[in-house]
């Protein structure tokens, strides 16, 4: 499954800790976020996708945003900068 951040849970190294994610538009996304929060693993990326009603961050017009830079995962700052350059057409 592709998570809200755009990563495939099958290849994400965080899956062992969180159990996998879901798209931000999934009806179970709020429940999933609450479960992660209760485990002490709140995901600001999933929370943002839910609030913005985006299935995946890569589709959001504001991506890459401060939420991703601040989270520091799953994408590095260098990769986020590269996404930004591509969007700006440089």
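Q: What amino acid sequence fits the structure above?
A:
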């Amino acid at each position: 499954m592709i998570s809200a951040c755009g990563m495939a849970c099958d290849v994400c190294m965080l899956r062992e800790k969180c159990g996998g994610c879901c798209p931000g538009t999934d009806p179970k996304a709020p429940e999933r976020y609450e479960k992660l929060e209760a485990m002490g693993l709140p995901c600001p990326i999933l929370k943002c996708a839910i609030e913005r009603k985006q299935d995946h961050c890569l589709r959001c017009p504001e991506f890459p945003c401060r939420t991703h830079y601040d989270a520091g995962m799953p994408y590095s700052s260098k990769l986020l900068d590269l996404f930004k350059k591509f969007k700006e057409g440089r």
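Q: And what stands out in the fold?
A: The chain has a mean pLDDT of 91.
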